[in-house]
Write a structure and sequence with these properties.
Shape: globular
Helix content: 55-70%
Number of helices: 10
Bound molecules: nickel (II) ion
Distance between the termini: 58 Å
Low-confidence stretches: none
Strand content: under 5%
Mean pLDDT: 92
Length: about 190
């Protein structure tokens, strides 16, 4: 794995997401990167460099933040880094496999895509998932109850939609924390 490219990718996303907070910031991409490496460790046969770069760049062309087509941000970064065109193609395929809304019910075709999608989903679970949901809800003027509905509509379903066994194991305590949080939330909300 080319460490200089990884370091440059970390710098690049820190620049790119400057000024963003809540759900989609550089910290999210860094957590997805670390989750992805953890999963990759348990999934022999994957190309770790593709996993790492796809994880770091997975939101670089997110349509909610950027008005780019065809992974333009990720592509121009990788091209400037002199990453081979064939590798850029595989990185972009893995990035495009990630999006929950676009890929509902569809499994990524490559192992690298599966790993990065799982890594992104892990970041929607656990304590971080709870924090991100309310940060996003606040940004979009949602009440606490409206944010809580998002747990039921999306987050609680994620553990059964993971691709890899390694991610399923990592997801268990995170899912359990969501369930426990919701129990407490309901209890405190209904205090008379
Ligand atoms: Ni993401």
């Amino acid at each position: 794995m080319n460490d200089a490219t990884i370091t440059a990718a970390i710098d690049y996303i820190q620049d790119l997401f400057r000024g963003n907070s809540g759900g989609h910031d550089a910290e999210h991409s860094l957590r997805v990167y670390r989750n992805a490496l953890l999963i990759a460790d348990g999934e022999p046969g994957c190309d770790t460099e593709i996993v790492a770069l796809a994880a770091l760049l997975h939101d670089a062309d997110d349509h909610k933040l950027f008005h780019t087509e065809n992974n333009a941000n990720a592509r121009s970064f990788l091209t400037a880094q002199k990453v081979a065109p064939e590798k850029i193609k595989r990185i972009c395929e893995a990035i495009n496999a990630v999006s929950f809304s676009q890929n509902r019910g569809k499994r990524p075709e490559t192992l690298e895509g599966k790993i990065v999608q799982d890594a992104d989903r892990l970041d929607a679970l656990g304590a971080i998932g709870i924090a991100r949901t309310f940060a996003y809800g606040g940004e979009h003027g949602r009440s606490l109850d409206e944010s809580v509905a998002h747990f039921h509509e999306k987050l609680l379903l994620l553990k059964d939609e993971l691709n890899t066994e390694t991610a399923r194991i990592l997801a268990e305590p995170r899912h359990a924390l969501l369930v426990r949080f919701l129990e407490e939330y309901e209890k405190e909300s209904s205090l008379k």
